[in-house]
Input
Amino acid sequence: MIKTKQRGLLIVISGPSGAGKGTICKQLIQHNSNIIPSISMTTRSPRENDIPDITYYFVTKEEFEKKIKENGFLEYAQYNENYYGTPKANIEKQLNEGKDVLLEIEIQGALQIKEKIKDALFIFVLPPSMEELKKRLILRNTEDNEKILKRFKRAYTEINELPKYNYVVINDDLDIAVKQIEAILLAERLKVERIEEVYVGNQEEVIHELLSNKDFQNSISEIK
Ligand code: 5GP
Output
C-alpha cells in the first residue's frame, strides 16, 4: 500500500565523554544487524581496550592532515589536542544499500554533518548528573588527571549545544537507554517523510467493480 525510502539512517550520537555513548553504541550494533558503525580516524594514542582498525584507525598527525587535504573526511575536529574524523569512504554507499550508519562523534563534527546531510538523525546522550559524570571519568581510569579535567570541562561546553540535536537520552540504566534509542530509530523509520508513494488504486474503478457485484447491490437495496 505504501512504498517507503529504502535509504538507511545516518545516526549521529554525541554527548560528554563519560556519558556512556561508547557502551550504548556497542549494544546497539550487537542487537541490530542493520546498524553499521563508522570507524573514525584519530591521532590519539590507542588505549588498553582499543583495537586498531576496529575501534579507530590510528594514524599520525601527518597522515591525518594529508587526508584533510585530499578531502577524505565527511567531518573532522580537534578534541583535546588530537584530531578525530569520519572517513567519507563507503558511508553514502552503505546508506543507499539501506544500512543504518552510526557515528559516535563530538559536537563540532556533528554540526558539520548537520550542514551536509539534511536527513541525518542527531541524538545526545547525557549522564544522570554531573557528579555521576565525574565519577565515571575517574573510575574509567584510562587517562591522567589533567586529561580527565579537560574532558570534564569540555562536558559543560558540549551540554550547551544540546538544543541542536533532535533527541536526548539520559544514560542512567544502560538497557533503558539502548531501548530508548531503538524506539527513536523505529519512529524515524515510520516517518511520513519517508513515504515515496501511496498506492490506493483508482477510486472510480474500485467503486464500479463494487457496484457491479450482485450481492453487494442486493445488500444495498436491503438496507434501503
Ligand atoms: P575518545 O578519545 O574518548 O575515544 O573520543 C573523544 C571524543 O571524540 C568523543 O566525544 C568521541 O565521540 C569523539 N570522536 C570519536 N570519533 C570521532 C570522529 O570521527 N569525529 C569527531 N568529530 N569526533 C569523534
